[in-house]
Amino acid sequence: MLKIYKVKNYDEMSKKAATLIAAQVIANPDSVLGLATGSTPVGTYEYLSKWYKESYLDINFEDVKVVNLDEYKGLTRDNDQSYYYFMQDNLFKNINIKAENTHIPNGLEDDEAKACSEYEDIITSLGGVDLQLLGIGGNGHIGFNEPGEVFVKDCHCIELAPETIEANSRFFANKEEVPKKAYTMGIGNIMKAKKIVLLASGKAKANAIKQLLSGKITAQVPASVLQLHHDVTVIADEEALSAVEI
Ligand code: GLP
């Protein structure tokens, strides 16, 4: 089942997403959260950090486990564009999560099969994901599952699509600095989550959101597979929903 929250703007989207995550953690303090990176969830993490600090909501991350969606291959952890760095900077350093309970694919592992099988083992050992947060690429990618001929089920190493390199180059000095490969959870890992919350803000996501909500299910638009999940909440702002009628 797919539920849509139409919100005014990025801030409202962020607040709504943070509310759902906080509710998950309050109800189940040992939840496994699947988390995402990119500019979309930054505001969500800001709200969670703020609410944790202000403490009136009493959100305790002590027993929470986090398993992130993806990581660039080849970036060191202290590179401010690595997703390891992003998660520390935007969330983990602000809350009382234990370092040993946070997991991100090992971007420094050169052996692709090894990096992926180790990450699969981590997800399995955690017993699966309770709530998976997702952004969406302009081309419909989720995690780093790029458009392709087939849905790839398990964690894998992906060659980034040219449009993803282009889109993400805004965070790097230039396009050449963007890693060409990344490790990502597969579509199967994402689909196994008990709940999925997908966020989208801005006109650049309007077409991807249209395909997700009403397009045909195809590996050319990886997010379209979410139509088959039993518990998806899409929180999107007016611009991201501008190509669909709701
Ligand atoms: C990135 C990430 C995705 C993210 C997407 C959109 O490259 N791998 O997890 O959802 O692309 O990014 P943004 O939120 O910056 O638009």
Explain the overall architecture.
- This protein has 246 residues and is α/β, with parallel strands linked by helices.
- The chain is 30% helix and 17% strand.
- It contains seven helices and ten strands.
- The protein has a seven-stranded parallel sheet with strand order 1-10-9-6-2-3-5, sandwiched between helices. A three-stranded antiparallel sheet has the order 4-8-7, with helices on one face.
- It is globular.
- The two termini are 16 Å apart.
- 2-amino-2-deoxy-6-O-phosphono-alpha-D-glucopyranose (GLP) binds at residues 36-40, 69-70, 135-137, 143-144, 164, 168.
Spans where pLDDT lies below 50 across 5 or more residues: none
Q: Write down the secondary-structure element order.
A: EHEHEEHEHEEHEHEHE
Strand count: 10
Round the Cα radius of gyration to an integer and report it.
Answer: 17 Å
Small molecules in complex: 2-amino-2-deoxy-6-O-phosphono-alpha-D-glucopyranose
Strand order within the widest beta sheet: 1-10-9-6-2-3-5
Estimated helix fraction: 25-40%
Short description:
By secondary structure, the protein is α/β, with parallel strands linked by helices.
Task: Please write out the topology.
Blueprint (H helix, E strand, L loop, with lengths): L1 E6 L2 H18 L4 E4 L6 H13 L10 E4 L1 E3 L10 H8 L11 E2 L8 H15 L4 E4 L21 E4 L2 H7 L12 E4 L2 H5 L3 E6 L5 H9 L17 E6 L9
Parallel strand pairs: 1-10, 2-3, 2-6, 3-5, 6-9, 9-10
Antiparallel strand pairs: 4-8, 7-8
The protein binds 2-amino-2-deoxy-6-O-phosphono-alpha-D-glucopyranose.
